[in-house]
Design brief:
By secondary structure, the protein is an all-alpha fold. It folds into 2 domains: 2-325, MFS general substrate transporter like domains (Growth Hormone, Chain: A, Up-down Bundle); 345-417, Orthogonal Bundle (Arc Repressor Mutant, subunit A), CATH 1.10.10. It has 16 helices and no strands. It has helices at residues 2-21, 28-51, 58-81, 85-108, 111-132, 152-175, 178-202, 207-224, 231-262, 267-291, 302-325, 345-356, 360-370, 375-382, 386-400, 405-417. Helix 1 packs antiparallel against helix 10 (267-291), helix 4 runs antiparallel to helix 9 (231-262) and helix 6 (152-175) packs antiparallel against helix 9 (231-262). The relative contact order is 0.11.
């Protein structure tokens, strides 16, 4: 709770500084300093708290570590975005596998050894990114899409998912013993890795489907079990919610990478916004858990569970609809299947549209033609008549100097090949 509250305050401060004064932490020395802050604060907390028994040091160390994490994450996201959506999903799967070994390790080796290992992890990540940086290709930037800088519907979705997570985090903290938590979390990490791979990479689900038809319902199912009461319900409910949460995190991170890489969203603003939504939702969930105390012998108040699930259901219904109407990422597959040397069809078409001064409608029609769509399907998707599509297509061909849809497709493909320096 303390660490989450610190992170919330830091994110608010950084977001305000960026929006009001245009100041952001984005240089390489600042990125390195953030990693050092995370490692150094954890090390100081280890030495002061567990070697010299100075518990007072925990609070400032948590604050410094949260500050370093908030500085570190936007740059981390930017670098991950350069590697693509599929790679981000694979990293999430890898993280689940690593956590499977880290959780039992914390209970087997001496705490001081485990803490030192955790202290050097940020430095290790910094070294990996520094070594890999020269191999990353550079791509020409294109003008961002209006309204895609930081979609409110995405932040509300993250807030909704984190709210449920915060409730269960408060419950686990007060009711679940360490041995039970270790077992539940370890098994959940294995299941999460399998589910994330199958759903996001093998079945190629869409963002909208993964978030609102899988992640949130699974998390709700976990909370619903708490109404039964007892250790079995606590362990099984926490396991189900944790699987949904890990998948939710993977989908959100993949979506952030997609928006930064292919929609030219502001990586710094988007990263801070995601962190703000997650921390705010988690803090709110833990506060709700403390306000609505459960009756004797029950995990959570049944009334509270019903009201929470009703709220989540209604909110998810609205957000799933809004994500389709107000943004263009809702039904996109969670992979890089359309990527051609680092650019999607949509991105290549925007490059052409800027150079040829196409109208927004001509750009939309060009994207559909480049995907091989016919006049009838384009008219149905854009809610215009086939005659209007024919007129725009004729004007589009004249501006581009092509005479057929096949020539337009070739032009778009060649644009993708010439986009790198």
């Amino acid at each position: 709770m303390i660490a989450t509250s610190f992170a919330l305050v830091v994110c608010l401060g950084m977001l305000a500084a960026y929006l009001i004064a245009g100041k952001k932490v984005a240089r390489r020395p600042q990125f390195a300093a953030a990693a050092l802050c995370m490692s150094g604060a954890s090390l100081v907390q280890l030495v002061a708290g567990h070697v010299f028994d100075q518990g007072w040091a925990s609070l400032p160390c948590v604050g410094v570590s949260s500050l370093g994490c908030a500085f570190f994450v936007p740059e981390l996201v930017r670098r991950m975005a350069s590697r693509g959506v599929t790679n981000m999903v694979r990293c999430c799967i890898g993280a689940c596998v690593v956590l499977l070994f880290v959780a039992p390790l914390s209970n087997v080796v001496p705490f001081s050894v485990f803490a030192v290992i955790m202290c050097v992890l940020p430095i290790g990540m910094l070294a990996c990114f520094t070594l890999a940086e020269p191999a990353q290709p550079k791509m020409q930037s294109t003008e961002g899409v209006e309204g895609q800088k930081i979609p409110c519907v995405l932040l509300l979705t993250i807030l909704l998912g984190s709210l449920m997570e915060g409730v269960v985090a408060g419950l686990d903290e007060t009711a679940m013993d360490w041995q039970g938590k270790l077992l539940v979390f370890s098994v959940a990490f294995v299941a999460s890795a399998v589910v994330v791979y199958a759903t996001l990479l093998h079945w190629r689900g869409s963002y909208n489907s993964a978030i609102f038809r899988q992640c949130i319902p699974v998390m709700m199912a976990g909370i619903a079990l708490f109404v039964v009461g007892g250790n079995v319900a606590l362990n099984l409910g926490s396991f189900i919610l944790l699987v949904g949460r890990q998948m939710f995190i993977s989908v959100v991170l993949a979506l952030v990478v997609y928006m930064i890489r292919y929609l030219e969203s502001d990586y710094y603003l988007l990263s801070l916004g995601v962190m703000l939504g997650a921390t705010l939702g988690s803090v709110a969930g833990q506060l709700l858990f403390r306000v609505f105390e459960a009756p004797q012998g029950e995990l959570l108040s049944p009334t509270f569970i019903v009201l929470l699930m009703l709220f989540v259901f209604v909110a998810a219904m609205y957000l799933s609809d809004a994500s389709n109407l107000k943004t263009r990422w809702g039904m996109i597959a969670i992979d890089d299947c359309e990527e051609n040397v680092g650019m999607t069809i949509e991105q290549r078409c925007r490059v052409i549209a800027q150079s040829k001064r196409l109208t927004p409608r001509e750009q939309e029609i060009m994207m559909e033609l480049a995907r091989g769509k016919d006049r009838q399907s384009i008219a149905a998707k854009l809610f215009i008549s086939e005659g209007t599509v024919k007129v725009h297509t004729r004007n589009l061909y004249q501006k581009l100097g092509v005479h057929s849809k096949q020539e337009l497709i070739v032009l778009v493909e060649e644009t993708g090949e010439q986009a790198f320096e």
